[in-house]
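[Meeting: bench + compute handoff]

Bench side (C.D.) handed over the final construct sequence. Compute side (W.E.) agreed to return the predicted structure before the next meeting so the bench team could plan truncations. Sequence as handed over:
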Amino acid sequence: MQIIKNYFHIGLKEPFCVLHASDTHITFADNRDTERKLELSQGRNRIFPTAEENLEFLKEKACKEERTIIYTGDLIDFVSEMNFEKAEDFCKSVDIFMSAGNHEFSHYVGEAKEDAEYRNISLSRVQRIFNNDIRCSSRIIGGVNFVAIDNSYYLFEKEQIDFLKKETEKEYPVILCVHVPLYTRELYDLEVKQKGNPAYLMSVPEELMQSYTPHRYEQQKQDEITAEAFDFIVNCKNIKGILAGHLHKDFEGMINNDTPQLITGCETVREVYFD
């Protein structure tokens, strides 16, 4: 895996480093699952052939260097007993702080509308894999408050924005950890140019979504709470950076000209240093 180093200079007394990873997409299934699930496993493995190898690399690096892993979603590719077991084994062997991705709750990948009702079918089982609340939680590491919010369906919920606001009132600088990156025009233009539409970002302005298919428009349009969350995030001085995934590529950009947003791809581990 590729290793990228990044630095946040925010005036800490003691420097430290965390590892940022995202979107490994492990694709295991066995005879406890349906034939359809076994076929899904075979097909998805062709898309993510190095997932198991990448997870082992991340585990060895985190353990050897005694680093906390900040993981921003899609550790697993779809719901299966073997994926759950592999993910649990991994999480028991490392120190991990997690925000959920949409694939954590996906049963057959793209087979249904992804909404709260769909997510809740598997949420309790997925949650048991991880120590922190993967929908909304925080953790102080080295004097920095890492706040994980599940925006993997492109939305914030009321309790999430309320939680984030309370966390930013604390004395610690905040790093926001989400699955779906926040919209910037630079990132939008890059995604549309490389992949065609849509851009798969949170809070894309309405006028830039007119060419989206009806399905993607419905999937990604923001509601009032998400718009409020976006506005709060881009204007909050105590949020010092954003860690995200979802796009399966590496990208470094800025929110509101002074807040870094780091997106980590499937084949990359970031060493993120704070001082």
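W.E. noted at the follow-up: Residues 51-65 form the longest helix (15 residues). C.D. will use this when planning the next construct.
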